[in-house]
């Protein structure tokens, strides 16, 4: 395992909800290429209970990190 991957897996702090909830992440990913972050957050609020909801700013930050990670790996993702 490369050192950077080792450090990423052992970061301190609380992981993002979208990183630990695969169903929520899949729900957001399915909407990234066709809705705004605010619209996605509104749909999340309609579909998921309050403890699983995320705000548009969290979706934006998560999507940006995801794009960066995937670009480094050579994958093409929707913006």
Please outline the helices and strands.
Layout: H1 3-9, H2 17-20, H3 22-29, H4 37-47, H5 56-73
Sheet-strand content, in percent, reads: under 5%
Structural class: mainly alpha
Order of helices and strands: HHHHH
Low-confidence stretches: none
Alpha carbon gap, first and last residue:
29 Å
Question: What overall geometry do the principal axes of the alpha carbons give?
Answer: globular
Tell me about the largest β-sheet.
Answer: none
Considering DSSP H and I runs of 4 or more, what fraction of the residues is helical?
A: 55-70%
Question: Radius of gyration from the CA trace?
Answer: 13 Å
**Chain oligomer state:** single chain
**What is the helix tally?**
5
Average pLDDT metric: 87
Describe this structure in words.
Helices cover 61% and strands 0% of the residues. The chain is globular. The chain has helices at 3-9, 17-20, 22-29, 37-47, 56-73. It is mainly alpha-helical. Helix 4 (37-47) packs across helix 5 (56-73). It is built from five helices and no strands.
């Amino acid at each position: 395992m490369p050192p950077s991957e080792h450090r990423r897996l052992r970061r301190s702090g609380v992981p993002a909800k979208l990183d630990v909830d695969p169903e929520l992440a899949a729900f957001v990913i399915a909407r990234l290429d066709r809705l705004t972050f605010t619209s996605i957050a509104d749909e999340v609020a309609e579909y998921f209970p309050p403890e699983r909801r995320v705000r548009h700013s969290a979706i934006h930050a998560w999507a940006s990190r995801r794009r960066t990670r995937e670009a480094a790996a050579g994958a093409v993702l929707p913006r």
